[in-house]
Structures are given as structure tokens and as C-alpha cells.
Amino acid sequence: MRFVPIKNVEQQAMLALHRARQRFVSARTAQANQIRGLLSEYGFVLPQGIACIAEKVPDIIEDGSNELPGTFRQLIQRLMAHLKALHQQVSEIDAEIRAWHRQSDLSCKLEKIPGVGPVTATALVATIGDAKHFKNGRELAAWLGLVPRQHSSGGKQNLLGISKRGDSYLRTLLIHCARSAIFASRRKGMEQGWVHDVARRRNSNIAAVALANKIARTVWALWRHDRQYRPDYTPAAAAA
């Protein structure tokens, strides 16, 4: 059994910011969905996304020709004000996270990994505490639940889905990072790497988890050996 690494006071404060941000983001999403659902009952179907709601809903409320009841207009205005307040809370916490990130050499180093931004980098630094807690990158990936579960039957080892052990928030962030990196490479027309082969042979979700596993291993290597990220880096054993 591996225990959660001990945090210092600064790391604890950063994790508190992340927990608060996570709650505000969830509340913002729920509020946006409620507004979208209520408007759909009157025939206004809006696409997903906070930006779309912020752009379209004020016009719907102010349009006197759509015959929306006054009580309903006031309700939507109240819910929009709540959505705006939640969005402001997320923005303010993001600013605090970015400020902490800029003051952390390690966090800035981890941001160089494709797909990793200040939110994920600071969460990694604050959650892991010290890479010395793990023998290697695979152990860190396993701690985060990014390795396949194994099942033995009749002397045969079968690989199942990922174990999903450990910190679910950090695991989710890394998978989002992986998806972002895959999308960015596709947009640039760079679809020749191994992760795109996995996506074609299996599916995009499996490819994202596989890349998240690699990102976790890369995080450990940069942190433990005090290296800078190099996209062309090849381990000595693999190059031999």
C-alpha cells in the first residue's frame, strides 16, 4: 500500500485552491446546463459551452417578440447572474494558480510537456510533493491509476481497463492534457506518432489514457533527474 505523500503548507494551500476551483467549475457547468435545459422547454436549443450561453441568452431575454413570460425572463436573468458570478470565481482562482505557477521553477518545467498547462502543473507539484517517493515513472503512473488492471485465469494474464486507483482529480487532468496534445498535433497535421496509431487501431479514449501514462512517466523523469523537457529525447537503453 502506498500512502499519500506529506505536503508542506504551500502545497496544502495550492491543493485547497484546486479543490475550490473544482467545485466552482462543477457548479458553473450545472448552472449552464440548467439554463440550457429551461430554455429548451421554450424551443431555444443552445449548443454546449459557457461562451455560447453568454453570447446568445441576453439576446433571447431582450427579444420582446418571442413571447417569453416576464417571470421566466427574470428567472433566466437571475440564473445568468449566478453563472457569471461562478465564472468570475473560477477566473480569480485561475489567476492565483498562475501566479503560484510562475514562482515555481518545477511547475514551469512541467508546463513544457505538450498538453500540460499551469493548472495541471501546479496540481502535480502540490499533490506529488517529491518525485523521490516513487522508484520510477511507471510507479507514479500506477499510483495515479493510469496502468491496466491485470487478471489471471488459467495461467494466462489478461489486461483489463485502467485501475483508476489514486487521485482521480489528477488522473482526470492528465487525461485532459493528453486529449489536448492529441488534438493539437492533429490540427498541425502531425498524425504519424505512436499515439495516433493507437487511436486508429483501438480508439481515441485508449490513446488518451496511453499518452496520459507517458506524460506521468515524463513528469517523474524531469522531476527526479532535474531535466528540461526535450521532445527528441530518447532513453539511453532505447537508443542502444
UniProtKB/TrEMBL annotation:
One of its GO terms (molecular function) is transposase activity. One of its GO terms (biological process) is DNA transposition. Coiled coil: none annotated. Pfam families: Transposase_20. InterPro entries: Transpos_IS110, Transposase_20. Residues 110-184 form the Transposase IS116/IS110/IS902 C-terminal domain. NCBIfam families: transpos_IS110. This is Transposase. It comes from Cupriavidus alkaliphilus. The lineage of its organism: Bacteria, Pseudomonadati, Pseudomonadota, Betaproteobacteria, Burkholderiales.
